[in-house]
Amino acid sequence: MDKPVIAIMYDFDKTLAITDMQNFSFIPSLGYTPEEFWKETTKFCEKMDIDRVLGYMYMMLSFAKKQGIKITRKYLNEQGKSIKYFRGVENWFERIKEYGREKGLIIEHYLITSGNKEIVEGTSIFKEFKQVFGCEYIYDEETLEATWPKTMINYTQKTQYIFRISKGLIESNDDSKINEKTLVRRVSYENMIYLGDGLTDVPSMIVVKENNGTSIAVYKKGERDKVSRLFEDGRVNYICKADFSENGELDKVVKLIIDGIQIKESLERRSLEMKKEL
Question: 3-class DSSP state for residue 171?
Fold first, then answer.
């Protein structure tokens, strides 16, 4: 029998990274502060009545053009090198995978972000994910410059990737099978864990929780009130401080969830063995 797979899915900004990925070096490279950039983006989105994620992708190109900066994939990759994470993040992924191996389980990490996939590609943790789903640009073949959004993932669109992961359809352009009925899923919903930081993750948190998976809202030190309502309203299973270090609260909660999945899988296996014996 194949080993059961557990999929742990993450938001990026303010979940793994301490703030929005563009704030670290991309926006300063344009000569603006994050406050100025996001304020102008909000004004643009309201004026044009455009989705905020699509709006920020446009504003990135617009601001860069004004400054004479060429936005290439390589340029965006470079912006990922300066990102700062919450405590313990960089050692988290392999440690949790090893814990799963000890329990006879396969742990897979997935990133589902409304940020730039190209920036994530340049981070120290990109290699830790089985797949990264994020916003991307199309690049001109001659100039190598970004010309148009290739993929745009807003807060509700994140949920489709939960279904893709469950079915094992992790290629974004595989549209033929996503809506087909699937009798056997590669990752059962019960074996899914979603980590996010707030209201923008609510659709994904609810989808996972209501399908008997586990949703966890993380928060910065001193900002527990920002996520406590999510727990009180039954939108998440747990709230934990964004500290990914070993033996921290989040580490203990995730390992307990893994323990519970291992016990459930063992009992189901034993039940099948009994049926065969009879």
Answer: coil
**CA-based torsion, 226, 229, 234, 235: positive or negative:** negative
Question: What b/e string do you get for 176-200 counting C-beta neighbours within 10 Å, with b at 16 or more?
Answer: eeeeeeeeeebbbbbbbbbbbbbeb
The edge-to-edge listing of strands for the beta sheet with 106-116 is 146-151, 131-139, 106-116, 5-10, 192-196, 214-219, 238-241
Do 37 and 59 form a contact (C-beta atoms < 8 A)? yes
Structural domain tally of the chain?
1
- Give a yes or no: residue 160 inside a domain: yes
Pairwise CA distance, residues 89 & 83, whole Å: 12
- Mean pLDDT split into 10-residue runs, the chain, 278 residues: 90 98 97 97 98 97 96 98 98 98 97 98 98 98 96 95 92 59 81 94 96 97 93 96 97 98 90 82
Angle at 91 between CA 201 and CA 130, to 5 degrees: 60
Question: Tokens 């999945």 label which residue?
Answer: 261
Residue 235 lies in a domain: yes
CATH label of the domain that carries residue 171: 3.40.50.1000
Please check whether residue 46 lies inside any domain of the structure: no
pTM for the whole structure: 0.94
The answer to whether the CB of 195 falls within 8 A of the CB of 156 is: no
String of DSSP letters for 209-273: HHTT-EEEEEE-TT-THHHHHHHHTTS-SEEEES--STTSHHHHHHHHHHHHHHHHHHHHHHHHH
Quote the domain boundaries for residue 185.
5-19+85-277
- Which SS3 state, helix, strand or coil, does residue 56 take? helix
CA distance 243 to 241: 6
Given CA atoms 117, 204, 266, 167 in this order, what sign does their dihedral have? Answer: negative
